[in-house]
What does this fold into?
Amino acid sequence: MNAKEVEKKQAEQKEWDLDDKDTKDMYDAMLDDCYDRFMGLYDPSQVLEEVDPTAYRCGFNDWADSLDLIWICPECGEEHDDEDDAINCCQPDMWKCSECGKEFDDEQDADDCCSKDV
Ligand SMILES: [Zn+2]
Ligand SMILES: [Zn+2]
It folds into this structure.
């Protein structure tokens, strides 16, 4: 038995970052959905950010904690909601021959590589 499964890179967990514009937009949209416009004029997210930045940041952290985990493919950076999907996104199952290190996409081929029974 020479076949050894080739190890895959781990998927990274997406970190929600208020400095990321898309993430901030999502958070702002959530706040604006939850509250009425301030004096009918101002977006609640904007008011909170300016008047009470600490509360704004705290709220962001709570909100980020409530979100589903997102996993990032280590190869292409695509986002997946499932860790296995992210790992398998660009990394097919590969096996390698434990004798010579050659890689195969078929376990049997790796197994047979250096074990030629003559
Ligand atoms: Zn990928
Ligand atoms: Zn081999």
